[in-house]
Structures are given as C-alpha cells and as structure tokens.
Specification:
alpha+beta; Aminopeptidase; seven-stranded mixed β-sheet; disordered N terminus
C-alpha cells in the first residue's frame, strides 16, 4: 500500500497553462535521472524515521500508526534478516543524496516465482514522479536478477495517485476487496489489487 499523492498545480496568471500530461511527462523524465535505489541499511534509519512518522504518510500506507520511535531501525533489522533469507528485498529511494522513502518486494517465492511490490515516499516528495522512477528500477531488479515471473501490488481504492503509479509501471487491475489479515485495517478500508506478469513488463 503506498502513499503517493499529487501536489496541486495550476496555470500561471496571464499565460496559458501547459497541458497536464506534458508537465507530468517532463516531471517523470527528470525524476528518472534524479532517483536511485540502494539496499536498505542502518544509515537510512534517521531520515526514514522522520518521514515515516508523518500522519499524512501513515494515513495511506501499511506502516504502523502511530509510528514507533524505533520503527525505522526495527524495520531495517527485520528486512535485512529477510533479505538474507531470500524472501524480502527492500531498497531506500535516494534523491538529492538523501533517503526519501522505500520501495521493494516482500513474499518472494513460490512456483512460478512471484512477489508483492510495496513503496512509500515522504510527503515532501509526493507528486514529482519519484515513485514511478523507483518502481521501474525495483521491477527491473525483480524481473532480471531476482527471476520473478509475476508481481502483485495493492493500494487504497481511494488513492487514485498511487493507482496511476501502478498503471504507469504496467500493472493491470484485478479486483477490489478488504485488506488481508496481515495488513493494517481501518474501518471501511477497501483495497484495489493489481498484477504485472513478466511478459507484460515493458522495462
């Protein structure tokens, strides 16, 4: 479940506003050159702790709410253990030389080999194309070295921006339904579920 939300934007007074699609395309091309990913490690904890503690982020993610004071450090320890076991691969999203969120796979395994994609960004970095850029890099790792045949993902049904990110990455909608037992649930939550087979991945 992911917190990617668009920033509001408008035209410039006295000038014709540029088409939204053109602006979005330029933003995504710029983000593709600005964003990198690296395996999540202890050095990322302070920045991610501050970002993940934001109520706006917690409202649209599966992160525990309120976020524990040692939440980032504890998560990094656990995901490092799972990486070593080969079942989870989480990356820090880096822009401007600092961590701005996370993106990665959990539940890696099965036959054919599959995993679930998840991601979140700190609120100051919403609406810049960073989630899409990071997602492409993580999927390239998944369908390449990791050898995945299929990737699933989900987001809140009301989170239209996150849905657009998944669609840009090539995912197709499969169904909607309540959160799984392993996901944080709020009254009335409905999720949209998506799938991306390796054959549909465009890179």
């Amino acid at each position: 479940m992911s917190p990617y939300q668009p920033r509001k934007s408008g035209g410039v007074a006295g000038r014709r506003a540029r088409p939204r699609r053109a602006r979005a395309g330029r933003s995504e091309r710029a983000a593709a050159t600005q964003v990198t990913i690296e395996p999540l490690g202890p050095a990322h904890a302070p920045a991610l702790q501050a970002l993940a503690s934001d109520p706006a982020v917690l409202a649209t993610t599966n992160l525990p709410s309120p976020y524990p004071p040692d939440g980032a450090e504890a998560f990094i320890r656990e995901t490092t253990r799972r990486r070593q076991a080969g079942v989870e691969f989480v990356f820090a999203i880096i822009a401007g030389g600092r961590p701005i969120g996370c993106c990665g796979f959990k539940g890696v395994g099965g036959e054919p080999r599959s995993a679930e994609l998840g991601y979140w960004l700190g609120q100051p970095f919403w609406g810049r194309g960073y989630a899409t850029a990071a997602g492409r890099q993580v999927l390239a790792f998944g369908f390449g070295p990791l050898g995945l045949a299929r990737v699933t993902a989900d987001c809140l049904l009301t989170n239209r921006a996150s849905r657009r990110v998944l669609e840009k990455l090539g995912f197709h909608f499969t169904h909607e339904g309540p959160p799984r037992p392993d996901q944080r649930q709020e009254p009335g939550d409905v999720l949209a579920f998506f799938e991306l087979p390796r054959g549909a991945w465009g890179g």
